[in-house]
Known about the structure:
This protein is an alpha+beta fold. The chain has one domain: Tetrahydropterin Synthase, Chain A (2-Layer Sandwich). The chain has helices at 54-68, 84-96; strands at 2-15, 30-43, 71-72, 105-111, 117-121. A five-stranded mixed beta sheet has the order 3-1-2-4-5.
Amino acid sequence: MKVCICKTFDFDAAHRLGLLPPDHKCHRLHGHTYRVDVVLAGEARPPLAMFIDYADIARAWAPLHDALDHRCLNDVAGLGHPTTEALAEWILRKLCADSEVGPFLVAVRVHESSSTWCEARTVDLP
């Protein structure tokens, strides 16, 4: 049976969006408690009726958490202009490179607040 699963992680970080006009509030240094949903799809196979252990996803996330948590995202190598869109794509690329979860990765959704998020996908949107 084909299934889709998600594991959610949190981290706190600051950033400034210096390419925005100086009077834009996000031009200034500010922070967020980000929530990241890592979405994978695969075949749930007997006898366990699962295709990947949530602990494997947590293991793949751990180095990213170390690189992002309580950091200034402007200083994270390879992230560039640290918008939510750039962050979602950066996380997706890093997780795709992981041999355990990469082949199953469908999407990464980064929540910047309780009402805003961006999703980067490994497959085209319909």
